[in-house]
Sequence to fold (353 residues):
Amino acid sequence: MKAWRERGSVGGRDGERREALRVAGVDLDPARAQPGGGPSGERGHEHDDSRPHDHAHPHGHSEPGEPPIIGIVGAGAVGTALGVALTRGGWPIAAVASRDPVRRERFRELVGGTRAFAEITPLLDEVELIVLAVPDDAIAPLARSVRLYSGQALIHTSGALGAEVLEPAMAAGTQVGSFHPLVAFADTERAVAALHGATIAVEGDDQLVALLAEMAERIGATAVRLAPGTKAAYHAAAVLAAGGFVALLDAIAELGRIAGLDESGALAIYGPLIEQTLGNARALGIRAALTGPMTRGDVGTLEAHLAALAVHAPDVLPLYRAAAAREIALAEGRGVLTPEVVGRLLGALAKNP
Ligand SMILES: NC(=O)c1ccc[n+]([C@@H]2O[C@H](COP(=O)([O-])OP(=O)(O)OC[C@H]3O[C@@H](n4cnc5c(N)ncnc54)[C@H](OP(=O)(O)O)[C@@H]3O)[C@@H](O)[C@H]2O)c1
Fold:
């Protein structure tokens, strides 16, 4: 299995990440068909006769070897950052559709050279590759509300939904897919920077996937193709790594407040510990990175924590308990606890202090 379009030597953290993905059996070579000249490949593409209703239209066409003519629907966090990143990568955005005039204008200012519409329909008349960067719940209704013209491809950026949600928009000679960047889009410039070296899960038929892999490469990212049926687990892990981690940070800050720290104080004190733990996990593996009372079988410390949380931060208790149960299982798996100590730790956890 070779990486999609080898780019000379890929060293450092990027190289390590790609190697880890390769070892894990993730498809790093999603492009089995040659990309070129827009979603439908060479002009004069074949139509899919299994889809009876051709839907021809003189929308814009790129020349072979040129980037596709791209339109983005949704000038929110993802749409805007992708627009900026692709434009900087040499794939300009021909059109944007956003119902909000302020977001529309901001997109135009940041991306430049883009026609802006309030609706998706006029955008469809202009472009070949349509990127739906709208909330998950809006994707299916939007796909039902439009019909693609032959030669066009429609993709969404959701990690939770498969490409099939877009099928109602299909006509003969059209394609649907998805392009999910594993990035937390909290701020445009930070997200554009984070796209460099990020992983992007792509779906679609081979020809579209080849194009999406090239699109990922343009923004400095690596395209991966997940095994069928695994996208929900992959996305749940991403949600734990981003939103779940923020929830954990919030609980840490709440406990820090009890100790007299404000939010920045808590981040200053516990941040280095978090970074150190992540570094240990990377260097030693997750199980070996576990430290703390559960690894030592310190039942008294666990009981003291549970009692303190019950008094000062009862809403943090469920999170602490869930994490402690997982830590005990990890320590047990490491072979550092006797079954008797494991039983006492679990007993303390089950008790209501
Ligand atoms: N945020 C992340 O970190 C992240 C990471 C990876 C993937 N994603 C995925 O990317 C997609 C977009 O997420 P986001 O964070 O960019 O969302 P967002 O910031 O809320 O932006 C969504 C955009 O879609 C437009 N929109 C909302 N409802 C719409 C509707 N019913 N019809 C048409 N347009 C609608 C919004 O309004 P206007 O039309 O008024 O502008 C806005 O411009 C989602 O599928 C999400 O799961 C997000």
The CA atoms of residues 144 and 168 lie 5 Å apart. The pocket of NAP is lined by residues 74-79, 98-100, 103, 133-136, 138, 142, 157-159, 180-181, 183-185 (CB under 6 Å).
